[in-house]
Amino acid sequence: MKDILDELATARRAMGKGKVPAGEAYTIEVRRRYEAQVEDVWDAVTSPERLRRWLKPVTGELRIGGKFELEGGEHGEILRCEPPRLLKVSWLYGPDADAWPGTSEVEVRLVPGPTGDTEFELIHAAVVEEPLFPTYGPGAGGVGWDLHLLALSRLLAGGETTDHEAVEKSPEGREFIRRSAAAWGEAHLAAGGEPEHVAAAVEATTKFYAPDPA
């Protein structure tokens, strides 16, 4: 289990506030380092063949102004693309999401390191309605991104394709989820969250991603 939890510890997490076209938004921010050249990381986050191996299968027009859709329903438009440093997309989910454009955006920033590594930063800004944020806090999206960035690390390290369902059902995966939810709780506290609210949100997030076995 050590390697999977070590991966969790490599990331720095923060919760903040920002803006999207629809108005004020909450942000969840993840920063970490990958032992891979920036061109390799860029290819992994933009190539459909590699995206499906750590995120989800993607279809659409992968160009500025083009629209994309992930298997599972997430979809949006490519807003900025500056290889190999910056990718920004709108990020919508659900059957009614298109009625609320400009409410959610994801930005990935890559900076080449001094030893052939890459500093990776992901910022997800979203206008979050009740009861989603009060119930789950930043872990609502943060745990999901932690799981996907674990999969990206495995892909970059050795080309491994992650079976997300198998990971999330395994004892190691469930412990990863528990600790990820707790880490996002720490970020929530650092951003000024009330301790009782944060504790309840961490518990709700953990149960959502890793429900008790039937």
From TrEMBL:
Gene3D superfamilies: 3.30.530.20
InterPro entries, A to Z: ASHA1/2-like_C (IPR013538), START-like_dom_sf (IPR023393)
Domain Activator of Hsp90 ATPase homologue 1/2-like C-terminal, first and last residues per copy: 36-153
Family, as annotated: Belongs to the AHA1 family.
Identification of the protein by name: Activator of Hsp90 ATPase homologue 1/2-like C-terminal domain-containing protein
